[in-house]
C-alpha cells in the first residue's frame, strides 16, 4: 500500500519521520475494526479503528491510494458507511491530520470531523491537528 498511497499523504507522513510501512502494518494489526477497499481489483485504501475495545473512544486511521482519488464519491460514501458501523460501539472518533496534507483535511471535514485544537501538536519531525467526529 505504501507505493500506492496518495503522494501528498505519503510525503506529509514521511516528513514526520514515520516509517510508512511499519506504521500502516501496526495500525492494521492493532485495529479492532479494519477494512481494505478495492477499486477495479486494485487496493485503493486501508482503514481502521484502534484503541481499547472497552473504551467508548476510537482512533480512526485511513490511507487512500491514488486510484481512490478517481472515485471520490464512492470512497466518501463507503467511508461514511463504515464510520456509521463503528459508531454503533464507539461514542467518540478521533484522528490526526497533517496540516500540510490539505486534501486529507478537506476530506475529514467533509466527512464530519472538526478540528479540536487549532494549534498543531508536535509529532516526530512535524506537527498534526487533532480532529474529532461530529456525532
Q: What report would you give on this structure?
A:
By secondary structure, the protein is α+β, with helices and mostly antiparallel strands. The chain has a single domain, classed as Aminopeptidase, CATH 3.40.630.30. It is 33% helix and 33% strand. The protein has 4 helices and 7 strands, in the order H-H-E-E-E-H-E-H-E-E-E. The chain has helices spanning 7-15, 20-30, 72-86, 102-111, and strands at 33-39, 42-50, 57-64, 92-97, 113-115, 121-123, 126-133. Strands 1, 2, 3, 4, 5, 6 and 7 form a 7-stranded mixed beta sheet that branches. Strand 2 (42-50) and strand 3 form a beta hairpin. The longest helix has 15 residues, at 72-86. It is globular, with a radius of gyration of 14 Å. The N and C termini lie far apart (30 Å). The mean pLDDT is 92.
What layout of secondary structure does this protein have?
Blueprint: H1 7-15, H2 20-30, E1 33-39, E2 42-50, E3 57-64, H3 72-86, E4 92-97, H4 102-111, E5 113-115, E6 121-123, E7 126-133
